[in-house]
Amino acid sequence: MGTPLKDRNRAEFKRYKEDVESEGKSFFPYAILHDSVMSLVVVAVIIALACIWYFTADGTEAGLLGPWYTDEADPGTIAFVPRPDWFFYFLFYLLRIFKWPETVVLGTVGIPTILLILLIGLPFYDRRPERRISRRPVAVVAAILVVISMGVLTWKGATAKEALGSELIAAGEPQEWAEQQGFADNPTAVAGATLFAQSGCLNCHTYLGEGAGNLGAPDLSEIGASGRGVDFFKSYISNPAQYGNNVMTSYSYLGDENLTKIATFLDASRGGG
Fold first, then answer.
1. Looking at the structure, do residues 171 and 200 belong to the same domain, yes or no?
2. By residue range, what is the domain housing residue 126?
3. How many domains does the chain have?
4. CATH number of the domain that 196 lies in?
5. Which residues make Cβ contacts (< 8 Å) with residue 187, sequence separation at least 6?
6. Do 214 and 134 fall within a single domain?
7. Distance of alpha carbon 236 from alpha carbon 228, whole angstroms
8. Is the pTM of this model over 0.85?
9. For 41-97, how does the pLDDT look when each residue is reduced to its tens digit (9 = 90+)?
């Protein structure tokens, strides 16, 4: 003898089948026709956008949807800040909330995985026959919160600004660093501050509130207070691997003179005064 829940499910299914037979439409040709029309609409939109892009642009001159082609990428650039596709902006911004390495796994793997499991399991734990929105307040509120969260995170990720060296130099940041840190009268350290901004160091590190703080890179605002000296910093940035740092790239290509300037800048960065 079936349980009341099973009996109710059987009754609901029987009523559903009766409704389909009396009022429903067969899969062929109705559902196939709807899918075919929608597929043709999507293809037509793609073709229309491709035509608009092609016929409104002229070589490198941008049209309504951009130029045909742009300048070739420079594989040796150190000023470019990579960004994900727009549909990953929410995850991109989560990396700013959950810092590496303590909580980054929670933000990049834990939360998305938990939400995906909940979504996949929805048909198994939500077995109520009621589907009217007015009688499903919990589901409606949960859906609204998810949409708002994804929208806010996507917007924040799209508008997040990176510390580009050219912008910092144009804004006079290296000179302000020198004045705040007290090495404005040291031309070698000032030149090192400019090289520090130009070389993309702030893509990972932070300095006096500027920078990204990615991959666990430390704040260098007071690194000189460690008392390690110019020679140590010069040796470190030329070959971080010898000190066990396999994440940071080597900057030996900058040359001995430039390495000395950056090392002098780091040694002079002692938190102000």
1. yes
2. 84-160
3. 3
4. 1.10.760.10
5. none
6. no
7. 11
8. no
9. 999 999 999 999 999 988 777 788 888 877 777 776 655 666 788 888 888 888 777
